[in-house]
Design goal:
Keywords: DNA recombination, DNA-binding
Strand order of the largest sheet: 1-4-5
Helix content: 40-55%
Largest sheet: 3 strands, antiparallel
Order of helices and strands: EEEEEHHHHHHHHEEEHHHHHH
Strand content: 5-15%
CATH class of the largest domain: Mainly Alpha
Structural class: mainly alpha
Distance between the termini: 113 Å
Shape: elongated
CATH architecture of the largest domain: Orthogonal Bundle
Number of domains: 3
InterPro entries: DNA_brk_join_enz (IPR011010), Integrase-like_cat_sf (IPR013762), Integrase_catalytic (IPR002104), Integrase_recombinase_N (IPR010998), Tyrosine_recombinase_XerCD (IPR050090)
Protein name: Integrase family protein
CATH superfamily of the largest domain: Intergrase catalytic core
GO molecular function, one term: DNA binding
Family: Belongs to the 'phage' integrase family.
CATH topology of the largest domain: hpI Integrase, Chain A
Length: about 350
């Protein structure tokens, strides 16, 4: 059994140097002093530290403080993480240290730290605060991996709600945007996005074998069988398919990597005056155009492939409010005289 044995009865001379010694695991270790009182004091300190370490191993506690861990993490992260990730993680840790101080023990951190972070930065946008929270969680996961903590103290920290309107092209501007795309292959892909509301991954994976011409439907395959669905084909999407030479395999096979479609569509949006939008916003543009044309939210849910109605309703809540404002004015009562009495 590992333990510390008592001090030697007198200083021993080893390699020409005299000193009191103690034993640990059968090894004789120097106290580097010939003064008995000093040797006893040093041994008490060693025993206290040893006992503390023994208790920590039993209880799982660790006396590593926030500053020590932050320094270790930064030294590791700067060599291993992408620059953007490293900087975001470092900033989050500095925010935590601003609140708790460098001497705070890691195992004393709680969710209160994250609550305090949200309070002290309440003047910032929710997205900025959420970024700090996410990266603080990620850094503390490393403390768990390294054995400094049993569990992540920030694991249960909730993100702030973010009010965000979806980006889209106004329905009346869609035709002009389509005409602005010079490359016909890219134009076909963009029209397919706008005419179906499909995600990029779904359109890029779509195959000629998935088209049911006689029924004017197309099939979207998913890894999970219950998510595979058949969707009706709009006249615009049918026009896209008819404009292309039929073949086998992927319909949109111009680029090997799906990201290339994202980049090319982004360039087209920028040239068309919609640089603030992305490829995914073409899906939103389809949804907004449908709702403003009188389409129902339930039908939109099915066409988008959302498994829950709540997702569709929450995403397009602002859009439906605007649509209602337009719809209420569809009821026209003609010229009204509301200022004079009729005899």
């Amino acid at each position: 059994m590992t333990d510390i044995m008592g001090i030697s009865k007198k200083p021993l001379k080893v390699a020409g140097k005299a000193s009191y010694y103690y034993k640990l695991d059968g090894r004789r270790l120097s106290l580097s002093t010939t003064n008995y009182s000093e040797a006893c004091r040093l041994l008490r300190s060693i025993k206290d530290a040893y006992l503390k370490g023994k208790i920590q191993r039993i209880t799982g506690e660790n006396d590593k403080n926030l500053g020590q861990f932050a320094d270790e993490f930064e030294a590791w992260a700067i060599e291993t993480q992408p620059v953007k990730t490293f900087k975001a993680n470092r900033l989050a840790m500095r925010k935590v240290i601003d609140i708790e101080g460098r001497t705070k023990r890691l195992d004393m951190l709680t969710l209160k730290t994250m609550d305090e972070l949200k309070r002290t930065h309440r003047h910032l946008k929710p997205s900025s605060i959420n970024n700090y929270v996410r990266h603080a969680k990620a850094v503390m996961n490393k403390a768990v991996e390294w054995g400094y903590l049993k569990a992540n103290p920030f694991k249960g920290a909730k993100l702030l709600p973010q009010a965000k309107r979806v980006g889209f092209i106004e329905p009346k501007e869609i035709s002009e945007f389509i005409r602005s795309i010079e490359d016909v292959g890219l134009r076909r892909f963009v029209v397919a996005c706008l005419a179906t509301g499909r995600r990029r991954s779904e359109l890029v994976a779509l195959r000629w074998e998935d088209i049911m011409w006689d029924r004017r439907e197309y099939f979207i395959a998913k890894e999970k069988r219950h998510l595979c669905k058949t969707y009706p084909m709009s006249a615009s999407f049918l026009a896209v398919l008819k404009s292309m030479p039929r073949g086998k395999g992927r319909i949109f096979n111009r680029y090997a990597h799906a990201d290339t479609y994202t980049h090319e569509v982004k360039r087209a949006l920028e040239r068309g005056g919609f640089g603030h939008l992305s490829l995914h916003d073409l899906r939103h543009s389809f949804s907004v155009a449908m709702l403003e044309s009188g389409g129902g939210m339930k039908a939109l849910q099915k066409l988008l492939g959302h498994s829950e109605f709540r997702v569709t309703a929450d995403t397009y809540a602002d859009v439906t409010d605007d649509a209602l404002q337009l719809a209420v004015n569809l009821v026209r009562l003609g010229p009204l005289d509301l200022t004079t009495d009729k005899k």
